[in-house]
């Protein structure tokens, strides 16, 4: 973490648990880590956003439960539907509304 992400306080980050997950591709390996402090986790995510944009060799992501993934997927679909409805409604209203002075 210190070398790749450039975290100065990497030695102060406490990892509660970390393990590897077997992958289909033998050259790639997924590592799951649980941090003791939420603040450490957030600092890693923030640093990864700014540092790893150009580096495609690995990525940092949160591991959400299946329930959360399912709910977020439904929310995303609803947001798309609402956005389309709002655009249609605003175009309809603007084209037929006239203000006279």
TrEMBL record:
Gene3D superfamilies cross-referenced by the UniProt entry: L1 transposable element, RRM domain
Superkingdom to which the source organism belongs: Eukaryota
Protein's name according to its UniProt entry: Uncharacterized protein
Gene source species: Dreissena polymorpha (Zebra mussel)
